[in-house]
């Protein structure tokens, strides 16, 4: 079904507002975590689930959200998602216990899983492939990545000026305004094959498998990597994820049509984004802890300290729009990932007595500009050359790679960081002093930063190996020849 005619830039503005809200809530809780932990009496182990309950539910149901948009209408799913997300935000703000907060964060992730793929597929069906879509994706990527950085700033401001529930209250006026405006101005579009159904079994198995995997990783530090508990959850995760593959192969209406991965650009972009997100998601988390727990920044100061990250992403995204036509959609993200790796390695210089400007800021600048350069072309690679009927599926897979990569990366790197910190303290042979505690934390952060750099370096290597220049020529040229068959291996 063809999309109704609307002002495309107004449509872009509305869907980007919703996406900003979704990405904002992936990071806005980070600066508020100490306040949440104190008010609700959460343990260190459970505190991580305030972040990962959202990320995993978001990632686990993105594929269902993307396919739902293709089948019943992208605008309709987008509006439902905005309602669910906004109501869940209110419930999070009113949560009386840690269990309630974790459950409501999961519900918020479900709303995000409906919004994000519908929003991205609305853009891909509104803007023709080529220069106009490149501009639109530049705005989208800046909002998507910048929203994460702004979340850190806004979280600090709201937590300090009011209290942590306000990080959720802020979504209420945004959600209400976006719903009313989108109801009137966003066009409807969907797959012509309306008779197809929903693969609920696929959505449940992939989400359950990923939850089991992350839970096993998070608990590995406490239970031991070789313990029966850890091994049991890893085995459960692999079994359920294998069941997901079987369900998809046998289903007449699969959640993920596995043949879409025959498209080389889809494979490459999603693997790259999975690894990039694994590195960057954790970096937000550890940078926040370093500023507050080691340097002693307040929540407001820590939030403001991330303003250069936001600026760097905007600069990088703007540069990428000019560089993609000149250098190609393959080369630009390689440059961006190289910059990010150098920035992450600079964080190895951080120490308990470090200075913000001389020690912390250089890594922030290089990493943020590198991410701005990376997200625009990788998003273009992931969504270009896909038939409009599969726009929701392609965008759902791409967003899933980002969210699941981030959740798994945080789980792995947080576990390694805690292990390094524990080893440092155990090696003292005496009761640790405050200075020892700070040094032990920094030792753990160094392990996490190095792991983040390895994830992103691996992403660059795989993108360089898996994508060929002819595969992405149409991204900048605006040619429609980047078809599924042409990009297939």
Describe this structure in words.
This protein is mainly alpha-helical. It folds into 2 domains: 8-198 and 255-487, MFS general substrate transporter like domains (Growth Hormone, Chain: A, Up-down Bundle); 199-254. It is 79% helix and 0% strand. It is built from 18 helices and no strands. Helix 8 packs parallel to helix 15 and helix 10 (264-294) runs antiparallel to helix 14. It is globular, with a radius of gyration of 21 Å. The model is unreliable at 477-489 (pLDDT under 50).
Rounded to the nearest angstrom, the radius of gyration is: 21 Å
CATH architecture of the largest domain: Up-down Bundle
Q: What's the number of structural domains?
A: 2
Strands, count: 0
Helix share of residues?
A: over 70%
CATH C-level class of the largest domain: Mainly Alpha
Question: Hey, roughly how much beta strand do the residues contain?
Answer: under 5%
- Helix and strand sequence: HHHHHHHHHHHHHHHHHH
Task: Quickly give the structural class.
Answer: mainly alpha
CATH fold title of the largest domain: Growth Hormone, Chain: A
In short:
The chain contains 18 helices and no strands.
Note the main attributes of this structure.
489 residues; mainly alpha; Growth Hormone, Chain: A; 2 domains; 79% helix; 0% strand
């Amino acid at each position: 079904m063809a999309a109704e005619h609307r002002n495309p830039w107004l449509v872009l503005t509305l869907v980007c507002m919703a996406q900003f809200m979704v990405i904002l809530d992936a990071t806005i809780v980070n600066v508020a975590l100490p306040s949440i932990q104190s008010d609700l009496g959460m343990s260190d182990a459970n505190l991580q689930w305030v972040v990962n309950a959202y990320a995993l539910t978001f990632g686990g149901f993105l594929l269902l959200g993307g396919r739902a948009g293709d089948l019943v209408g992208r605008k309709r799913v987008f509006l439902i998602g905005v309602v669910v997300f906004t109501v869940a935000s209110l419930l999070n703000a009113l949560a009386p216990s840690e269990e309630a907060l974790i459950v409501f964060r999961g519900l918020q992730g479900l709303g995000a899983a409906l919004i994000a793929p519908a929003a991205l597929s609305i853009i891909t069906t509104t803007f023709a492939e080529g220069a106009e879509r490149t501009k639109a994706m530049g705005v989208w990527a800046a909002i998507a990545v910048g929203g994460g950085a702004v979340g850190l700033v806004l979280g600090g401001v709201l937590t300090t000026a009011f209290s942590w529930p306000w990080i959720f209250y802020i979504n209420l006026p945004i959600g209400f305004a976006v719903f009313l405006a989108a109801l009137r101005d966003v066009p409807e579009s969907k797959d012509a094959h309306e008779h197809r159904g929903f693969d609920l079994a696929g959505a449940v198995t992939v989400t359950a498998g990923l939850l089991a995997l992350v839970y096993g990783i998070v608990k590995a530090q406490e239970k031991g990597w070789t313990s029966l508990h850890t091994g049991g959850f890893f085995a459960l995760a692999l079994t359920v994820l294998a069941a997901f593959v079987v369900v998809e192969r046998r289903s007449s209406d699969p959640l993920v049509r596995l043949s879409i991965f025959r498209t080389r650009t889809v494979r490459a972009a999603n693997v790259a984004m999975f690894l990039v997100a694994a590195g960057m998601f954790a970096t937000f988390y550890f940078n926040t802890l370093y500023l507050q727990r080691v340097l002693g920044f307040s929540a407001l100061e820590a939030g403001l300290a991330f303003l250069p990250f936001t600026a760097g992403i905007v600069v990088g995204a703007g540069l990428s729009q000019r560089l993609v036509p000149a250098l190609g959609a393959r080369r630009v993200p390689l440059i961006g990932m190289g910059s990010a790796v150098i920035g992450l390695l600079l964080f190895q210089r951080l120490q308990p007595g470090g200075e913000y400007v001389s020690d912390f800021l250089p890594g922030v600048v290089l990493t943020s500009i590198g991410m701005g350069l990376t997200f625009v072309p990788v998003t273009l690679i992931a969504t270009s050359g896909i038939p409009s009927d599969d726009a929701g599926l392609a965008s759902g897979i791409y967003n899933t790679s980002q969210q699941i990569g981030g959740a798994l990366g945080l789980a792995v790197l947080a576990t390694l960081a805690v292990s390094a910190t524990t080893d440092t303290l155990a090696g003292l042979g005496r009761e640790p002093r405050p200075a020892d505690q700070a040094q032990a934390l920094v030792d753990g952060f160094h392990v996490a930063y190095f792991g983040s750099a390895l994830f992103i370096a691996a992403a660059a290597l795989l993108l360089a190996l898996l994508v060929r220049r002819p595969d992405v020529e149409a991204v900048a040229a605006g040619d429609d020849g980047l078809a599924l068959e042409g990009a297939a291996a």
